[in-house]
Design brief:
By secondary structure, the protein is mostly helical. The chain has three domains: about 5-135, Fumarase/aspartase (N-terminal domain) (Fumarase C, Chain B, domain 1, Orthogonal Bundle), CATH 1.10.275.10; about 140-395, Fumarase C, Chain A, domain 2 (Up-down Bundle); about 405-475, Orthogonal Bundle (Ribonucleotide Reductase Protein R1, domain 1). The chain contains 18 helices and eight strands. The protein has helices spanning about 25-30, 40-60, 65-80, 100-115, 130-135, 140-175, 195-220, 240-255, 265-270, 270-295, 325-350, 360-385, 395-405, 410-415, 415-430, 435-440, 445-450, 465-475, and strands at about 5-10, 10-15, 180-185, 190-195, 225, 260, 310, 390. The strands form four sheets. It has a two-stranded antiparallel sheet with strand order 1-2. It is elongated and about 100 Å long. The termini are far apart.
Length: about 475
């Protein structure tokens, strides 16, 4: 049995693997772009299958493609959308501009599968042709931006629940740790006390706000230029095609979609991809920061902060027995760095369009979809395997809350900043606590010490009683 078959395109004859659903133009792309070994994200394949099915439905309803062909195309495209033929999408993610090669990979797979369904042979295209039928009324220039946007919207549906659950875990930990006093730190130096629960509540709010902004940014992807054809003018399309095709795509994808008011804008501008990528970058920056905090707070166990304990997930050293590392916070930081880098690449691609088309779309799709995927997978594990299992080292936290020299801040309204600073210097020099020095200098009565220098009192707004009177009497 032959290992290859011959197909002909506009450049001549091409050898194609005998049993592949792709055809000549895909085979050329495989030969031309042996770049990374990376293949299209499954959701990009799904989105393109949905676009082809939606377009075929529109063309069928308008009488532009006969029912027999259209139904075969719809069935084949639906199988593509379901992931049945993912192995047939063999074009490298780094390819010719605008994603022509990936688009033709889609057209050829759908065409060959449709021909099979109609009893035809692979590569003959007698019944269904990749360009004449599967791509009827379409161009890479409107299909790729449409597919990229839909794929991104679908991918985000996997990230939103992860972010929401992550924020909820921090909120639960905030409630659990609400009564745990600890020292705050600014400039990596002792600061006034704070409750461990307050720190965790702020982490949760950061994630919640990042998710909210991401949802807002994704709204800019819902206007589609499908039907714009080659340059956004709709050449070779029926006047009703774009409305029908977008409505079909909205139904098939389950996404709220609408035709762009200006198809030229939708083809020229990829600002929506920049918006989403930037929102992902913002989330990455927050989770890098939070993961760094968690590594600091859990550092030790004997020579670090050791204010919290992380679940022990695996041995941490090939040479130091018993060492346990904060592996998931470390992973979070590295994935965050990748997302930030992906955003830079996406931003460069978004600004690189010229005139009627931005041809850098394949790298936008690659980077944005990768960012969504690795964030979703990483934060899911960070949430369930790490943050949910964090426990507080209460005695260490309380010890630091009582030792912090910034307890003297509470004395400012009573003795003034200058005298409070002198007490801090003495505390640092002697090792005596602020509370002990307040007693030693008889600055306050025992009742006042208990009230004013109680760390718990410092973690909420409290107006100091008779502050001015006491400061005047002590001067």
């Amino acid at each position: 049995m032959a290992e290859t078959r011959q197909e002909k395109d506009s450049l001549g004859l091409v050898e194609v693997p005998a049993h592949s659903l792709y055809g000549a133009q895909t085979a050329r792309a495989v030969e031309n772009f042996p770049i990374s070994g990376l293949r299209a994200h499954p959701l990009l394949i799904r989105a393109f299958g949905l676009v082809k099915a939606a377009a075929a439905e529109a063309n069928k309803s308008l009488g532009l493609i006969d029912e027999r062909r259209a139904d075969a195309i719809i069935t084949a495209a639906t199988e593509v959308a379901e992931g049945k033929w993912n192995s047939e999408f063999v074009v490298d993610v780094f390819q010719a501009g605008a994603g022509v090669s990936f688009h033709m990979n889609t057209n050829e797979v759908v065409a060959n599968r449709a021909n099979q369904l109609l009893g035809g042979a692979l590569g003959e295209y007698a019944e269904v042709h990749p360009n004449d039928h599967v791509n009827y009324g379409q161009s890479t220039n409107d299909v790729f931006p449409t597919g990229m946007r839909v794929a991104t919207l679908l991918a985000l549906e996997t990230l939103y629940p992860v972010l929401e659950a992550f924020a909820a875990t921090f909120a639960a930990k905030a409630r659990e740790f609400d009564g745990v006093m600890k020292s705050g730190r600014t400039h990596m130096q002792d600061a006034v006390p704070i409750r461990l629960g307050q720190e965790f509540a702020a982490y949760g709010l950061a994630i919640e706000k990042g998710c909210r902004f991401l949802r807002f940014a994704a709204g800019s992807l819902r206007e589609l230029g499908l039907g714009g054809s080659a340059v956004g003018t709709g050449i070779n399309t029926h006047p009703d095609y774009r409305e029908k095709a977008v409505a079909n795509l909205a139904r098939l994808s389950g996404q709220a979609l609408e035709p762009a008011a200006d198809m030229r804008w939708a083809m020229q501008s990829n600002a929506g991809m920049a918006d989403v990528s930037a929102a992902l970058r913002g989330i990455a920056l927050e989770v890098i920061r939070i993961s760094n905090d968690i590594r600091l707070l859990s550092s030790g166990p004997n020579t670090g902060f050791a204010e919290i304990y992380l679940p022990s997930l695996q041995p941490g050293s090939s040479i130091m027995p018993g060492k346990i590392n904060p592996v998931l916070p470390e992973l979070v930081a590295m994935v965050g760095f990748q997302v930030v880098g992906n955003d830079t690449a996406t931003a460069m691609a978004v600004q690189a369009g010229q005139l009627e088309l931005n041809v850098m779309m394949p790298t936008m799709a690659l980077n944005t979809l990768q960012s969504i995927t690795i964030l979703a997978n990483t934060l899911r594990e960070f949430d369930t395997r790490c943050v949910a299992g964090i426990t507080a080292n209460v005695s260490r936290c309380v010890e630091y809350s009582e030792k912090t020299v910034s307890l003297a801040t509470a004395l400012n309204p009573y003795i003034g900043y200058a005298k409070a600073a002198e007490i801090v210097k003495e505390s640092v020099a002697t090792g005596e606590t602020i509370i002990a020095l307040a007693r030693k200098r008889k600055l306050l009565s025992e009742e006042e010490i208990a009230e004013i220098l109680a760390p718990e009192r410092m973690t909420e707004p409290q107006y100091p009683l008779d502050a001015a009177k006491r400061r005047d009497s002590s001067s």
